[in-house]
């Protein structure tokens, strides 16, 4: 799912490369602190221009594996990193989970969420390109503007 959102960013003219972190592959390293594989994943997150966090909805919120990863990022540590929260669910009753559960934890660790979260029913995944186009036309300009502002601030002055 995150890869499809990243592809949508690229199609809108956003210049960046995508690295996917499959949280399930981090395994037991998520259960403690200092695991080198988890550390590499966290370094990738911190170095990103845009963070796309995609998760299935589990027990009306995000997965425990994602929670274990996000718990290793300190409050405010992401320092305004643009983030796009994405959730997939089996039932429309969970549509607010992306805004009520995922967005607040991203903001707590310092991410900036300049868009509405993207919620997708798993029964509608076949229509994902159309949903991404509609969502992107409204939301991607805000992401692009925030990334450009961050790049301008971090660019060395002449």
TrEMBL record:
Protein name, UniProt field: FMN reductase (Sulfate starvation-induced protein 4) (SSI4)
Organism ancestry: Bacteria, Bacillati, Actinomycetota, Actinomycetes, Frankiales
E.C. number: 1.5.1.29
Enzyme class (EC, first level): oxidoreductase
GO molecular function, one term: oxidoreductase activity
InterPro entries to which the protein is assigned, alphabetical: Flavoprotein-like_sf, FMN_Rdtase-like_dom, NAD(P)H-dep_FMN_reductase
Domain (NADPH-dependent FMN reductase-like) ranges: 5-124
Keywords in alphabetical order: Flavoprotein, FMN, Oxidoreductase
């Amino acid at each position: 799912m995150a890869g499809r959102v990243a592809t949508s960013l690229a199609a809108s003219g956003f210049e960046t490369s995508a690295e996917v972190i499959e949280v399930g592959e981090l395994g037991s390293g998520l259960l403690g602190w200092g695991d080198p594989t988890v550390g590499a994943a966290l370094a990738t997150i911190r170095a990103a221009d845009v963070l796309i966090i995609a998760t299935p909805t589990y027990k009306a919120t995000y997965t425990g594996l994602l929670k274990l990863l996000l718990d290793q990022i300190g409050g405010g540590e992401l320092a305004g990193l643009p983030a796009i929260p994405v959730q997939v669910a089996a039932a429309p009753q969970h549509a607010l989970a992306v805004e009520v559960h995922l967005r607040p934890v991203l903001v707590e660790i310092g991410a900036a969420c300049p868009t509405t979260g993207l919620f997708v029913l798993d029964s509608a995944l076949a229509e994902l390109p159309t949903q991404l186009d509609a969502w992107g036309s409204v939301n991607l300009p805000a992401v692009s503007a925030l990334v450009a502002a961050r790049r301008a601030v971090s660019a060395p002055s002449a």
